[in-house]
Amino acid sequence: MTTGDAHRSGAADQQGLTAAGRPTRTSPPHLEEEDMTATTSEAREAAPDTLSTQAQAQRSGRTPGARRFGDAFSPMGRGRHRSALLVGLAAFILLLLLWSAVSYSGMVDPLFLPTPSDTLLAGVTMFQSGFGSDIGITVFRVMGGFLIAAVIGIPLGVLVGTYAPVSSFLEPVFSFVRYMPASAFIPLFILWIGIDETEKIAIIILGSLPQIVLMVASNIRNVPMSLVEASYTLGTNRGNVLWKVIVPKASPDILDTLRIVLGWAWTYVIVAEIVGASSGIGYSILQSQRSMAVDQIFVAILTLGLIGLIVDNLLVLANHTAFKWNNVRESE
Predict the structure, then answer these.
(1) Rounded mean pLDDT of 298-315?
(2) What is the DSSP letter of 137?
(3) What does 119-169 look like in DSSP terms, one character per residue?
(4) How far apart are the first and last CA of the chain?
(5) Which of 92, 116, 285, 308 has minimal Cβ neighbours within 10 Å of its Cβ?
(6) In the prediction, which pLDDT does 253 show?
């Protein structure tokens, strides 16, 4: 080998070629380690921030379905909407099976606990005899009295929850009336008003109005003070703070309050119809009790529960539809 060939061979080795044709390290060790670290960091950034469901399940030793089932029982855990419907349906089926087992087995006298089939037949007979009109008049009484109470109670509740002087003036009065059972006023209202529709609606207003005022005031007070302070910082005046910040933020809770109070309004109207009425679901219950028709009583009670369930779900749907920004729980 000549001197020139040796120089060229050394230059080739310096350029990263070995005798076997493999690349050699052409940069210092510390620089190569930095390159490897950067490459690893880029790979980590390209990967998802969290492990997949299967990987987490493998680490915990549980299947994904078991993990979701366990998370549903954690405090404030989230559940699938479809799973919630199935669980709710299963609860009704379980109650029906329990009712069937007790009634068909003869554990309880049919005079006191009718079978589901007897109840269904009694329901068909009642609807053929005009029970639908009793349902209609009861719904009219409930919704009429409740809407009047809501129209009066929501503005009062907003004022009580927003302004301290109004709260000091009105809240003690409504708290005092709230603890008076609405049914206790039925004899007085019959003497003062009579037994027509006005008396039933007045009972519903008396029972619902204090609840709406106080609960709406609580909804208003639950608005974070940070929102109010931020609006003042941005230059909003007092009037706009109430109608553009406080009321919109509390609106989902106010609608939920109305949903709860509406359930109580049904209780008030049934009591009013049992005491003094000539029509309605409560009147049907009283007439069935006098003739010992327990199956008809069951039909009336189940009808009330079904109507309440439908109205309750409609209000929940309206809340989710009107205030989508307030839906904290994500549907899966």
Answers:
(1) 93
(2) H
(3) HHHHHHHHHHTTHHHHHHHHHHHHHHHHHHHHHHHHHHHHHHHH-HHHHHH
(4) 76
(5) 92
(6) 94
